[in-house]
Specification:
Order of helices and strands of chain A: HHHHHHHHHHHEEHHHH
Number of strands of chain A: 2
Strand content of chain A: under 5%
Oligomer: heterodimer
Shape of chain A: globular
CATH topology of chain A: Sodium/glucose cotransporter
Number of helices of chain B: 12
Radius of gyration of chain A: 20 Å
Helix content of chain A: over 70%
Distance between the termini of chain A: 21 Å
Largest interface: A-B, 38 and 33 residues
Shape of chain B: globular
């Protein structure tokens, strides 16, 4: 039997917020500016509202089947075969997300920091970390997230405070960006930026009570939305929308702008710390979730035998995009724009089906 | 088994922690401090790099890092190449160290290139280069950028890095130029809100310093009303920063003097302080010196009548009296407003002239677009209106409010007493 261990709400909140935020440190702010212009700072709040609706569905589903995780609920509602397909789809999206986030991290870090290091070496280093963390288990990942979370939060706030001298409020105008309708549509489509919050449904059993799922989910969503709002607003105030569209990693560019005389500059290392640690938590977490789903699908009691072959799949998937443009404009774009189907719509179908067929947990 | 696996893992980690691929040894790098860009003769661009000298440079450290003069010694290298990256590669064929731009202070572009609209073309590879920071300062050299780079030497015992930092700090002390970086220029070049400016730089050869001739009479010259390189001075540093270059997109279309740059800073709310010398209102052949600073941020209002933009700009300044050459007792509640109104008239007149100059160039360097954009709901509407093209049609009203706060160490001016025969 796969034992995930038990951990508290703070640990769960930390791991989910970091998983949500990690991918936003790369090209996502650029894509948001390209899609909604100056309206990105409140578009993330629209996305959060949609994600809150999506998470509410997930919570009601978990509440209806106490003591079960999402994969077991799918099986209970749809039966073994359709339940298998639903869980499998979730595993595919998570594995693909992990692979694309991994590749995005490597591409960006190659542009800004490790210019000469071969991508396979960087990918390999991260995969080794994911493997080690998978061996030590979810409980340890969550506990480490809490530990790192406070430092990362402090680093993130310091970074934005230092960059605040570049804030110019005219840059948020025109307030409606490319139009309110466009912002609403994009906000809805990109609600999957908070999709990782629903991972709580996979490790629900690691929390103590069903009320904890609600607390963890909403609190993580509120914290992630607040941080994303602050980050996106800060970026909008620093880069005009034509400039913001050009930058590969806007947050890194912000860090490199900070310059307070000859003795206080080059604070990218602070940002690199946040960047690396958050990625080193987010990717192994997604990877571990895939292992959990897979072990459920094929009724594997021990995760260890599949920890070694799965990195090969992760590595292979991460090498699919032929370049950064394809990665950002095709793979990541569609993952972000349609991820909500798997994160929110599949649970909604399951909830509707459970209600219609009057199925309930014990 | 666990122990073997742990040992194996530690062994693998040892190799991962070396950073071998991207390891940068200080002794293998030449840290470029200044980059100069001119139009080339053998190729499209002439690129000049200035870096600490290897044989005595700081890069080697230790006691060998200082030249006999007390400061670090520097070398320059000039290369004709089709682009910045090509120049970089070619430079590496003659210097046995990898050029590194982590510590680049100034990118100096010649006026010739700026006027030809080649700034964007040249900056394109620079802004993509992750080792060149957005905080690097950008200058427009009056004549040759190579000469400017060559002659920019430490002054007063400092090294080039400190010299550059301190030189730029004078922007805040005087307001006669601005502290502008690569980030500012790149941001402005693509901006729909305003047009770019860059700092004017030049080698001052002392040509305007006239050694002999008729002595100055009672004429009045506005302080700082020069372009870089034109200040009548002798000796001191060989280079100077003064005034601003005005761009339309990436093409330099005009220049502002140091005095005009100060007015621009006042209008944008960037003015920290500066000393003004104006004619004494009661004895115009003599001067009054004022140290002026911003009292509060300027008030800018923009409205539209049909398609035509209207702008109202009000400056709030305050200052202290530094000298009254005439000795007239202005330090009374009735007399102080006389100087205040005279200064207000002076600034308004000069500001109107400067605004008119930028309108003739159709370059909103005053950032009125930052207020105008608030009247537009969407980017589509804003871009369709095209503020940068409409700036020349704007009707701009200005107003200046100036208050004297202090009178220096003297609160009363006594008359100078002469013997009867000297009156």
């Amino acid at each position: 039997m796969v034992e995930q261990g038990k951990f508290g709400n703070k640990e769960a909140i930390a791991v989910l917020v970091i998983a949500c935020m990690a991918k936003e440190f790369f090209t996502d702010p650029n894509i948001i500016v390209r899609k909604v212009g100056t309206a990105g700072w409140y578009m993330v709040l629209i996305s959060a509202a949609v994600a809150a609706g999506g998470f509410t569905v997930v919570y009601f589903l978990l509440k209806r089947f106490p003591g079960k995780n999402i994969m077991e609920i799918y099986d209970a509602v749809f039966g073994r075969y359709i339940g298998f397909v639903f869980s499998f789809l979730l595993a595919v999206v998570l594995l693909f997300s992990a692979a694309m986030n991994l590749r995005e991290y490597v591409e960006i870090i190659k542009i800004y920091v490790f210019l000469k290091t071969p991508p396979v070496y960087l990918i390999g280093s991260l995969i080794v970390t994911a493997v080690i963390l998978s061996f030590i288990g979810l409980e340890n990942i969550a506990r480490y997230s809490k530990l790192a979370g406070y430092v990362m939060l402090a680093g993130f706030i310091i970074l934005l405070l230092l960059a605040s001298s570049f804030f110019r409020f005219y840059r948020i105008y025109p307030l409606l960006g490319y139009g309110l309708k466009n912002t609403l549509v994009q906000g809805f489509l990109r609600s999957s930026i908070y999709g990782e919050i629903t991972l709580v449904a996979i490790f629900a059993k690691s929390l103590h009570r069903i009320e904890d799922v609600r607390k963890v989910g909403y609190t993580s969503l509120i914290i992630a939305a607040a941080l994303l709002f602050i980050m996106q607003l800060g970026l909008t105030l620093i880069f005009t929308y034509p400039f913001g569209k050009e930058l590969t990693a806007p947050l890194y560019a912000v860090a490199s702008l900070i310059h307070y005389g000859a003795f206080f500059q080059r604070v990218e290392s602070l940002f690199l710390f946040i960047w690396n640690i958050s990625t080193l938590i987010a990717i192994p977490l997604l990877f571990y979730m895939v292992l959990l789903i897979y072990s459920h699908l094929f009724k594997i009691d021990d995760l260890r035998p599949i920890i070694i072959p799965f990195p090969v799949i992760l590595l292979t998937l991460s090498l699919i995009p032929s370049n950064i443009v394809e990665l950002v404009q095709f793979y990541i774009r569609y993952l972000r724009e349609f991820g909500w189907v798997v994160f929110y719509v599949l649970p909604a179908i399951a909830l509707a089906m459970a209600a219609l067929s009057k199925k309930k947990g014990a | 088994m666990k122990r073997i696996f742990s040992m194996l893992l530690l062994f693998v980690m040892l190799f991962m922690l070396t950073g071998c691929y991207d390891a940068r040894d200080v002794n293998d790098a030449a840290y470029i401090l200044l980059i100069g860009i001119d139009r080339g003769i053998s190729d499209k661009f002439r690129v000049t790099f200035k870096f600490p000298a290897f044989e005595a440079g700081g890069a080697q450290g230790g006691s060998g890092g200082e030249s006999p003069g007390g400061g670090l010694s520097y070398k320059t290298l000039t290369i004709d190449a089709p682009s910045f990256n090509a120049a970089l590669e070619l430079a590496n064929t003659s210097i046995p160290r990898t050029l590194n731009f982590m510590h680049a202070q100034f990118i100096v572009i010649s006026e010739d290139i700026a006027k030809a609209g080649l700034v964007g073309e040249f900056l394109a590879p620079i802004v993509r280069n992750s080792s060149i920071r957005y905080s690097t300062r950008l200058l427009i050299a009056k004549e040759s950028a190579a000469e400017f780079v060559e002659l920019l030497e430490p002054f007063g015992g400092s090294d080039i890095t400190r010299m550059c930092e301190n030189l730029i700090k004078q922007a805040q002390e005087t307001g006669l130029f601005a502290d502008l970086t690569l980030y500012d220029l790149h941001d402005c070049m693509t901006s729909t809100y305003h047009q770019p400016i860059a700092v004017l730089a030049a080698v001052n050869k002392g040509e305007n310093f006239i050694e002999k001739g008729p002595k100055w009479d009672t004429k009045y010259n506005i302080p700082g009303d020069y372009y870089a390189g034109d200040v009548p001075r002798k000796k001191g540093s060989k280079v100077e920063l003064l005034g601003l270059a005005v761009f339309n997109g990436d093409r330099m279309v005009g220049k502002l003097t140091g005095h005009e740059s100060r007015l621009l800073a006042m209008a944008k709310g960037n003015f920290k302080k500066g000393t003004y010398t104006i004619p004494d209102p009661k004895r115009p052949e003599l001067n009054v010196d004022l140290e002026v600073r911003e009292a509060r941020r300027p008030d800018v209002k923009v409205w539209f009548e049909g398609e035509k933009p209207f702008v109202k700009l009000k400056l709030y300044l305050e200052g202290d009296i530094h000298s009254i050459q005439s000795g007239i007792h202005y330090e009374t509640p009735e007399m102080l407003p006389i100087i205040e109104r005279a200064f207000e008239r002076f600034i308004k007149r000069e500001l109107d002239k400067t605004i008119e100059k930028t309108q003739q160039l159709n370059c909103d360097v005053f950032h009125f677009g930052h207020t105008a954009v608030k009247k537009f709901a969407t980017i589509q509407e804003w871009e369709a209106y095209d503020w940068n093209s409409r700036y020349k049609d704007a009707k701009i009203y200005t107003e200046v409010d100036f208050k004297i706060r202090r009178t220096g160490t003297m609160i009363y001016s006594s008359k100078i007493k002469y013997a009867e025969e000297d009156k």
